[in-house]
UniProtKB/TrEMBL annotation:
SUPFAM superfamilies to which the protein is assigned, alphabetical: FMN-dependent nitroreductase-like
UniProt-listed Gene3D superfamilies: NADH Oxidase
Protein family (similarity comment): Belongs to the flavin oxidoreductase frp family.
Protein name in UniProt: Oxygen-insensitive NADPH nitroreductase
Domain Nitroreductase: 9-156
CDD domains attached to this UniProt entry: NfsA-like
Species the sequence originates in: Halobacillus litoralis
Annotated GO MF terms: oxidoreductase activity
InterPro entries, per the entry: Flavin_OxRdtase_Frp, Nitroreductase, Nitroreductase-like
Key words of the record: Flavoprotein, FMN, NADP, Oxidoreductase
Length: 245
């Protein structure tokens, strides 16, 4: 294994940080790594908002219900961004662009671009010994986050990322076995593999250092998908001019 793969394999989400801000140099390395990710058709259809205002951080912590959104070395919010692509358009051109701006294709493009940039940022941070955790719970109140960050039309927050010097070293969470995520030439049924994974994950939940519980992966997923979740997100995304047609 080389150092890059070792860094990737050591990943675990960090939710407790020392009371130290990350350095300007670390932030620059993280952001330039994010920027170097591949991007669909050179569109670079994302923006990153660094939140340094303590009041805004507290508001976002309240929205997410997660204190580490306030207590960290730095907070980033990754946004899908098709706004800058409209800036040089005449009103006639903007009208012509609208079907593309509003379709699912460009919603996916911008979300994928943001995610690729984010994961490059995560690996860069972890390679420097920093910890990180993604924060999807900014979507608990997407419209409030949108307002707090003053995002224009065609820009939506997708997820946050907390960064900092780790103050905890949680157990690593096991992943699905390769047979459940990699198939050659065609999709394959892998129910049996999932059942085996459930057994090993049940043992993991009972033996880990913190938050031990009786659970399995498939039970977790059934709970997740049988409870309506963030049902307002669809409407908010459409209101911002994404994924409308
Ligand atoms: C897009 C995305 C959103 C996430 N949102 C949250 C979140 O709001 N709060 C949180 O504590 N963890 C969040 N996570 C972290 C996951 O819970 C975590 O990656 C997963 O449980 C696997 O654990 P690990 O990262 O420690 O391996 C998020 C992860 C991703 C990829």
């Amino acid at each position: 294994m080389n150092e890059t793969i070792e860094t990737i394999h050591k990943h675990r989400s960090i939710r407790k940080f020392k009371d130290t801000a990350i350095t300007e140099e670390q932030l620059d390395a993280i952001l330039s790594s994010a920027q170097q990710a591949s991007t669909s058709s050179y569109m670079m259809a994302y923006s990153i908002i660094g939140v340094t205002d303590e009041k805004k951080k507290a508001q976002l912590a309240e929205i997410t219900g997660q204190n580490y959104v306030k207590d960290n070395g730095h907070l980033l919010v990754f946004c899908a961004d098709l706004h800058r692509h409209t800036l040089n358009a005449t009103p006639e051109q903007y009208e012509q662009m609208t079907p593309n701006l509003e379709n699912s294709e460009h919603f996916l493009v911008s979300a994928i671009d943001a995610a690729l940039a984010a994961q490059n940022a995560a690996i860069a941070a972890e390679s420097m010994g920093l910890g990180m955790c993604y924060i999807g719970s900014v979507r608990n109140q997407l419209d409030r986050v949108d307002e707090i960050l003053s995002l224009p039309k065609h820009v939506i927050p997708l997820f946050g990322m907390v960064l900092g010097v780790p103050d905890a070293q949680p157990d690593q969470k096991p992943r699905l076995p390769k047979q459940a995520i990699y198939f050659e030439n065609e999709y394959r049924d892998h129910k049996e593999t999932l059942n085996e994974f459930d057994e090993s994950i049940a043992a993991y939940y009972q033996s880990r250092k913190t938050n031990t519980r009786h659970d399995s992966w498939t039970d977790q997923m059934l709970r997740r998908f049988t409870n309506p979740m963030r049902m307002d997100v669809t409407g908010i995304i459409k209101n911002k001019g994404f994924n409308k047609q």
